[in-house]
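Long-time lurker, first post. I've been practising inverse folding by hand and with some scripts of my own, and I keep getting stuck on stretches where the structure tokens seem ambiguous. Below is the full token string for one chain I'm working on. Before anyone asks, I'm not after the true native sequence, just a reasonable design that respects the backbone. If someone could post their per-position residues I'd love to compare against what I wrote down in my notebook.
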């Protein structure tokens, strides 16, 4: 079994712990784990060797992974009859017609993978000009009210 960098560091720390160069607390600190976890890893590495240091799910597909057949059908739908649909509508159509319950985010990933980008305009994109006269900013309006109030003596209690 080939170990990645993180697992190699774990192996070195565990070997030093077995030899007695490190305490369980020092090993736990170097691994970023608790003392209990360091002892658990040590026991597993004594029992199974380097294989105990690798993650058990390595090489396996993720549990929530979408079935490849469903993905292919959804990509085909996104390219053909669902080409004009937004992500939510595409997910709903797939659920109704195919029986595939997909989230909106999954439908979006499938749509993009199908070569049909879309969605919002990029941040900072130019907006069309607004129609009509420019209005005064709220700060200007506030200053005007403040000036009118002080001129009538409202702010000074009627003395000004």
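-- Answer (accepted) --
I ran through it position by position. Result:
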């Amino acid at each position: 079994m080939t170990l990645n960098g993180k697992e190699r560091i774990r192996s070195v720390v565990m070997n030093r712990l077995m030899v007695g160069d490190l305490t369980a607390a020092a090993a736990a600190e170097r691994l970023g784990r608790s003392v209990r976890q360091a002892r658990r890893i040590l026991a597993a590495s004594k029992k199974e060797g380097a294989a105990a240091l690798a993650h058990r799910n390595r090489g396996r597909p993720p549990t929530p992974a979408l079935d490849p057949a469903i993905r292919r059908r959804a990509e085909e739908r996104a390219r053909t009859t669902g080409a004009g649909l937004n992500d939510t509508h595409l997910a709903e159509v797939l659920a109704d017609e195919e029986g595939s319950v997909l989230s909106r985010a999954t439908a979006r990933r499938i749509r993009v993978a199908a070569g049909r980008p879309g969605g919002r305009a990029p941040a900072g994109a130019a907006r069309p000009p607004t129609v009509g006269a420019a209005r005064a900013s709220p700060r200007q309006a506030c200053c005007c009210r403040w000036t009118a109030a002080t001129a009538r003596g409202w702010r000074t209690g009627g003395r000004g």
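A couple of notes from the structure itself: Helices lie at 5-19, 24-31, 35-48, 68-79, 87-98, 104-113, 138-151. The two ends are 88 Å apart (CA to CA). Happy to go over any region you disagree with.
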